[in-house]
Design goal:
3-stranded antiparallel beta sheet; 5 strands; two-stranded antiparallel sheet; extended
Length: 71
């Protein structure tokens, strides 16, 4: 399942290990600092790879800040 709500991309999935009889669920949330054109979001799943395209609105300001990483 893939959904978009209030500038947050939600991705959820489930795998099943038939040999062990176990299920695992995954859920990830990503917040985007720019305004996305939600009418033109596209997702495609091929060969185990999920590709999601989030077109950015032209001229949208960036929110948030960059955090310096110590090395």
């Amino acid at each position: 399942m893939v959904s978009w709500d209030d500038d947050i991309l939600n991705i959820a999935g489930e795998t099943e290990d038939e040999d062990r009889g176990q299920r695992r669920t995954y859920h990830r949330r990503f917040r985007f600092p720019r305004e996305v054109d939600d009418e033109n979001i596209a997702a495609e799943y091929n060969s185990g790879i999920l590709e999601i395209r989030l077109p950015i609105m032209t001229g949208s300001p960036v929110s948030g800040k960059e955090i310096e990483v110590q090395t």
